[in-house]
């Protein structure tokens, strides 16, 4: 099978840049994104949520603004009637009257920002309150980064940014430029 | 003024000398100096020239209120004009120069204008040069247009570099529970108190050091440090060199952080300045107060400063600003300074305008041998580029009379204090006049903001600390923390009341007394404005330019108001105050722009084939946020050569085009069919699975919004394409319909524009290209895959794809969509086949040529003014269903037969060309708005001459046999044209079915 070509292909250079010393920000692209949208209807929300949770092996489908990590993928509640299923293989079997599924694996580029200055770096670009009390682990939010709508999930590995593929390189450049002041490492 | 550095004292690091340059002269200062303090220590007096009269100006203050020592810092593309020397930190290698002067601020030929100052009064240019009598009586302002340039050249302050700014800037966002603005005694106390209550506190300070007014006292650093350490221990976040420049709705605050303005060699990775948007829950304004001067003769001379500035230069920078000093005051605050100056070795005279003061104030003066006089005020400073004497005035009745002259080299003035209420004023809170303290105080507000310390009119340091603590407790209570509710210190705190004093003048004595020093607004200007009928403070400000310089009226506004009140015979509160607006201090344009400059002025949107296209010779053009291939030049081909070749090749063999930028929307759910049927003008209820339909959607008002195709993938799944330009608009429109009108429909719409990469394969050999690439070639045979069919299949390399047999070019054509990460490998395969069949890659120019030949509409035609019928698509308006826009499209005005309708256009002389944007007129009436317009033209490779499409009243049938002119008056290119059918090539569409 043909290999997937990242939006950053040819422009992704690993290494340390900016301020010397320990990197305050570690940036990476998480390749091979598998992302599906699971949408349900107001009257099927509870029933469908159970199926959605089972498919990802989580106790309960997360509420708005939250994520739940399961052994068969991660559920991100991105809208009142929509989840994203990150990773995993089998999709829940939703009848049309229960909901819809949609493959978005190529629509986003998955960037990861971590390190002790990750929050500070992101808040140079993102207007949301990312302080730990306001943005605990498994928070999910939609926001704008350099005028472009993106989705952020605060995972155990850092801040996971799902950015529209077409804007990925432009945002990556802005992100790396910004991270330089903290000492940045692209891995 | 003969400033000299004292052998010890100050908060400078004398072990670290810094070299810098002033007007080409190499000088030395110390770490901790400002440019002003370093210049003062080096004996510099004249640092600038005034705006209008080019009068010599020196250091007048030690802070943001400075309006004399405005200089240009940096050189070349880093030249910054109008920098306040009093706030510019000194760094090694700093280059500064005077401005608004030639050849130098010391000797400025422009100062000749001072001799004509009696003519250059407020508004002189309006009166003198507009409708200049007698030449322009009743004839407008033609001469003004010439004089304005000369006047503007003569005026102005400094000159910015015209080169691109080499520095970079950034925006940032922050949150906190409590923001404390200002780190003086009140600010530190407020921050500590709020932090002790468990709140997340951010303390911002515009200075490089914390301490505020404490820094200007003789309090040793050791006494300040524990306070700061306590803050850090409580987790208070501290930002120095950061100005809170504006307060906005919901406790949002604008901050400007000067990141590298104090560094000799800032690292490239640091922005020069950072523009913060801070969202807080509660704000404590401990912004302090600014000392006012008094208007008296030549009060702008170098050597006249605020008393507070004299104290700052002494205690913070270890500089004695003069040897023989006269301190003139009307309040208590100058007494401590006077004693300190005398203690530092100066001969000091203290003049107090008040008739008497308590002995507790004067006791220390006597001990230090300070000459002290009451009931005396400054009348006129003597000297040209400095002060050598001061003429005095003594109280006489309700006014003043001249009372001799005393030699001096420095005059320090304290005319009272103005609390910095600017930020609260940004919220529309009008300050209230406090006559007892002769100042405006912040009024109450219902917003989560409180004012503490001298910003609230509390003068004594110990009271300021209490005031700060109370503010911290208020913040805690407002944010639901248990906290005490102690009483607030009352404004004031002086031992003797201030004597309000704004101007000193004596009868029959002409003086040049300034109110707004930077803009050369004098007391006479205020009185002139009054004589000319100005009553409103806002009008006064605009007429005289009072408070409009970059100090924003920090020093002069109150004096101006007082003089206006006096002229009007009113009290100050009756005259009102001007409204302070952001920014509190100037902000560079770069900081406002942040990272949105250059290549990142706006984000670039790239298709997955962006690099592939470039590697294959594409010349790109901007289309919205995208860059798309314009044409693919071979060898020395011009644009015209290339697109003609590309269009011709596509029509004879095959061409490939990146069409990824088209909008793509997934429409899913049991209600999807009904939804589409309501949105589109044409029927969708019976569209079969595996079929595509071209659709038009109207706005509510019946005009065409967008067009595109919709593919039925399953019973409940559709794939909609839109134009590139309207992709987002259509998406938003569909969401709005579902959320506000048809929430009962079970439909989800999702943009999948980024998910899919689109490749148009067009031309007689397009099927052959597909056959060479799909896993099962029989899938794409003419029978299996007819026109307007759609299949989901697999390309070589196991690339999943969906293909629709649709055509924009009018040829046998397909649109192939693959998941975007497979765009490049899919294109590699398709191109290998097409290239082997003598095919080509084609860009937007060739695409446009082919669509014009076919009369296919785009955004150029669907410009928001067009009905279905206008676009020649009337048959697509179903009469058997209701759809969006159906009712209003039947308005009589939209159904008139003589509305402009889509037509094709040929030049009557086929060898001629004509221009898009031209007006179509009857040949005999080439005038006015004409009868139509041309939206697009191209050279048709197929027809061999130029063609166009556009709109003309009544359409083709109305103009048969008539002579029509393509009128292009701007480019003087009128061409006679012929109105034809818009379907200029293959009108029957036979090629589509090939």
Q: What is the topological layout?
A:
The complex is a heterodimer of chains A (187) and B (994).
Chain A: E1 15-17, E2 25-29, E3 35-40, H1 45-56, E4 67-70, E5 73-79, E6 82-86, E7 99-103, E8 108-114, H2 118-122, E9 140-145, E10 148-155, E11 158-164, H3 168-179, E12 184-186
Parallel strand pairs in A: 2-12
Antiparallel strand pairs in A: 1-12, 2-8, 3-6, 3-7, 4-5, 5-6, 8-11, 9-10, 10-11
Chain B: E1 4-5, E2 13-22, E3 25-31, H1 35-41, E4 48-49, E5 56-57, E6 70-73, E7 80-84, E8 94-97, H2 112-115, H3 124-129, H4 142-154, E9 170-181, H5 185-196, E10 201-204, H6 221-233, E11 237-239, E12 242-248, E13 252-258, E14 273-285, E15 289-291, E16 304-306, H7 307-315, E17 319-320, E18 324-329, H8 334-343, E19 347-352, H9 359-368, E20 371-374, E21 376-382, E22 389-396, E23 399-407, E24 410-414, E25 417-419, H10 422-425, E26 432-434, E27 439-441, E28 449-451, H11 461-478, E29 514-516, E30 521-522, H12 523-531, H13 537-544, H14 557-568, H15 572-575, H16 589-593, H17 610-615, E31 618-623, E32 626-632, H18 639-652, E33 655-658, E34 663-668, H19 672-679, E35 692-698, E36 704-712, E37 717-722, H20 727-741, E38 748-751, E39 756-762, H21 766-771, E40 790-795, E41 799-804, E42 813-819, H22 823-836, E43 840-841, H23 844-854, E44 900-907, E45 919-922, E46 932-940, E47 945-953, E48 964-967, E49 975-980
Parallel strand pairs in B: 2-8, 9-10, 9-14, 10-11, 14-28, 16-24, 18-19, 18-24, 19-20, 33-43
Antiparallel strand pairs in B: 1-17, 2-3, 4-5, 6-7, 6-8, 12-13, 13-14, 15-25, 21-22, 22-23, 26-27, 29-30, 31-32, 33-39, 34-37, 34-38, 35-36, 36-37, 39-42, 40-41, 41-42, 44-47, 44-49, 45-46, 45-48, 46-47, 48-49
């Amino acid at each position: 099978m043909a290999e997937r070509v990242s939006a950053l292909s040819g422009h992704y250079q690993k290494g340390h840049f900016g301020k010397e010393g320990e990197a305050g920000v570690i940036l990476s692209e998480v390749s091979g994104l598998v992302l599906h949208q699971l949408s349900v209807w107001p009257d099927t929300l509870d029933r469908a949520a159970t199926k959605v949770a089972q498919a990802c092996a989580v106790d309960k489908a997360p509420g708005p603004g939250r994520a739940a990590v399961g052994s068969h993928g991660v559920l991100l509640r991105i809208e009142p009637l929509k989840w994203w299923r990150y990773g995993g293989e089998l999709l829940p079997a939703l009848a049309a009257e229960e909901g819809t599924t949609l493959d978005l694996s190529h629509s986003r580029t998955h960037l990861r920002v971590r390190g002790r200055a990750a929050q500070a770096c992101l808040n140079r670009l993102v207007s949301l309150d990312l302080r730990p009390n306001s943005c605990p682990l498994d928070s999910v939010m939609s926001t704008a980064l350099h005028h472009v709508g993106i989705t952020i999930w605060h995972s155990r590995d850092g801040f996971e940014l799902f950015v529209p593929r077409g804007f990925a390189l432009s945002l990556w450049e802005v992100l790396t430029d910004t991270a330089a002041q903290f000492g940045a490492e692209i891995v | 003024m003969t400033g000299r550095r004292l052998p010890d004292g100050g908060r400078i690091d004398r072990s670290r000398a810094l070299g810098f340059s002033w007007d080409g002269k190499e000088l030395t200062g110390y770490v901790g100096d400002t440019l002003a303090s370093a210049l003062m220590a080096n004996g510099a007096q004249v640092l600038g020239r005034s705006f209008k009269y080019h009068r010599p100006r020196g250091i007048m203050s030690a802070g943001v209120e400075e309006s004399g020592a405005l200089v240009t810092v940096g050189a070349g593309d880093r030249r910054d004009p109008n920098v306040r020397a009093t706030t510019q930190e000194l760094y090694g290698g700093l280059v500064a120069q005077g401005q608004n002067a030639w050849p130098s601020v010391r000797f400025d030929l422009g100062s000749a204008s001072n001799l004509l100052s009696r003519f250059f009064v407020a508004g002189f240019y309006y009166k003198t040069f507009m409708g200049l009598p007698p030449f322009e009586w009743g004839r407008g302002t033609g001469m003004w247009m010439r004089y304005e340039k000369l006047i503007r050249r003569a005026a102005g302050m400094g000159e910015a570099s015209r080169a691109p700014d080499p520095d970079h800037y950034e925006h940032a966002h922050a949150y906190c529970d409590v923001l404390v603005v200002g780190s003086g005694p009140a600010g530190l106390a407020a921050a500590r108190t709020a932090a002790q209550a468990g709140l997340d506190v951010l303390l911002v300070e515009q200075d490089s050091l914390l301490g505020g007014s404490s820094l200007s006292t003789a309090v040793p650093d050791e006494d300040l440090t524990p306070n700061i350490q306590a803050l850090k221990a409580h987790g208070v976040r501290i930002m120095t060199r950061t100005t809170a420049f504006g307060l906005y709705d919901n406790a949002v605050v604008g901050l400007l952080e000067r990141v590298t303005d104090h560094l000799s060699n800032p690292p490239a990775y640091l922005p020069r300045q950072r523009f913060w948007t801070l969202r807080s829950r509660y704000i404590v304004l401990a912004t302090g107060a600014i000392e006012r001067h008094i208007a008296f003769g030549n009060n702008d001379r170098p050597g006249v400063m605020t008393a507070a500035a004299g104290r700052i230069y002494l205690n913070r920078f270890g500089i004695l600003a003069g040897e023989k000093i006269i301190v003139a005051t009307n309040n208590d605050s100058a007494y401590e300074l006077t004693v300190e100056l005398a203690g530092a070795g100066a001969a000091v005279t203290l003049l107090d305008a008040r008739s008497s003061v308590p002995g507790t104030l004067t006791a220390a003066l006597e001990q230090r041998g300070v000459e002290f006089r009451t009931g005396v005020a400054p009348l006129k400073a003597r000297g040209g580029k400095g002060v050598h004497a001061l003429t005095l005035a003594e109280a006489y009745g309700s006014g003043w009379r001249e009372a001799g002259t005393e030699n001096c080299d420095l005059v320090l003035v304290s005319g009272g204090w103005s609390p910095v209420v600017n930020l609260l004023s940004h919220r529309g809170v009008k300050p209230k006049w406090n006559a007892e303290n002769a100042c405006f105080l912040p009024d109450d507000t219902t917003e989560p903001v409180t004012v503490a310390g001298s910003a609230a009119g509390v003068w004594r340091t110990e009271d300021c600390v209490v005031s700060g603590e109370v503010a911290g407790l208020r913040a805690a209570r407002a944010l639901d923390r248990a906290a005490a509710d102690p009483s607030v210190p009352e404004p004031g705190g002086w031992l003797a009341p201030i004597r309000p004093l704004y101007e000193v003048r004596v009868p029959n004595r002409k003086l040049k007394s300034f109110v707004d020093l930077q803009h050369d607004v004098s007391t006479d200007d205020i009185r002139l404005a009054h004589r000319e009928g100005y009553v409103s403070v806002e009008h006064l400000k605009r007429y005289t330019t009072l408070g409009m310089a970059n100090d924003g009226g920090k020093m002069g506004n109150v004096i101006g108001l007082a003089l206006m009140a006096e002229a009007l015979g009113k009290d100050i509160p009756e005259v009102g105050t001007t409204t302070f607006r952001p920014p509190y201090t100037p902000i560079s344009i770069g900081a406002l722009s942040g990272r949105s400059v250059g290549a990142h002025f706006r984000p670039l949107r790239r298709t997955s084939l962006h690099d592939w296209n470039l590697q294959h010779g594409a010349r790109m053009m901007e289309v919205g946020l995208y860059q798309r291939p314009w044409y693919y030049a071979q060898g020395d081909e011009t644009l015209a050569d290339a697109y003609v070749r590309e269009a011709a090749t596509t029509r004879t063999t095959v061409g490939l085009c990146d069409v990824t930028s088209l909008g793509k929307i997934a429409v899913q759910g049991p209600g999807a069919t009904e939804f589409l049927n309501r949105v589109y003008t044409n029927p969708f209820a019976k569209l079969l699975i595996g079929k595509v339909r071209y659709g038009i959607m109207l706005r509510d008002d019946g005009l065409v919004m967008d067009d595109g195709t919709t593919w039925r993938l399953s019973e409940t799944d559709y794939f909609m394409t839109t134009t590139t330009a309207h992709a987002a608009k259509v998406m938003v429109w569909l969401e709005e319909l579902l959320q506000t009108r048809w929430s009962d429909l079970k439909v989800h719409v999702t943009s999948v524009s980024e998910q899919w990469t689109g490749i148009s394969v067009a031309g007689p050999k397009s099927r052959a290209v597909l056959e060479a690439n799909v896993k099962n070639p029989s899938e794409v045979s003419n029978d299996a895959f007819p026109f307007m069919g759609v299949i989901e299949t697999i390309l070589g390399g196991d690339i999943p794809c969906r293909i629709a047999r649709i055509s924009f070019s009018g040829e046998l054509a397909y649109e192939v969509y693959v998941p975007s990460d497979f765009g490049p490998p899919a294109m590699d395969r398709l191109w290998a086949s097409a290239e082997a069949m003598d095919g080509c890659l084609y860009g937007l120019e060739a695409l446009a040529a082919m669509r014009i030949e076919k009369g296919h509409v785009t955004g150029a035609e669907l410009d928001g003014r067009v009905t279905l019928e206008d676009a020649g698509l009337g048959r697509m308006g179903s009469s058997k269903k209701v759809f969006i826009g159906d009712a209003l499209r039947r308005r009589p005005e939209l159904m008139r037969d003589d509305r402009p309708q889509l037509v094709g256009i040929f030049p009557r002389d086929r060898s001629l060309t004509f221009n898009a944007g031209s007006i179509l007129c009857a040949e005999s009436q080439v005038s006015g708005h004409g009868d139509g317009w041309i939206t697009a033209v191209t050279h048709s490779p197929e027809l061999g001459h130029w063609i166009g499409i556009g709109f003309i009243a009544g359409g083709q049938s109305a103009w048969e046999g008539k002579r029509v002119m393509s009128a292009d008056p701007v480019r003087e290119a009128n061409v006679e044209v012929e109105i034809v059918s818009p379907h200029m090539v293959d009108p029957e569409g036979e090629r589509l079915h090939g």
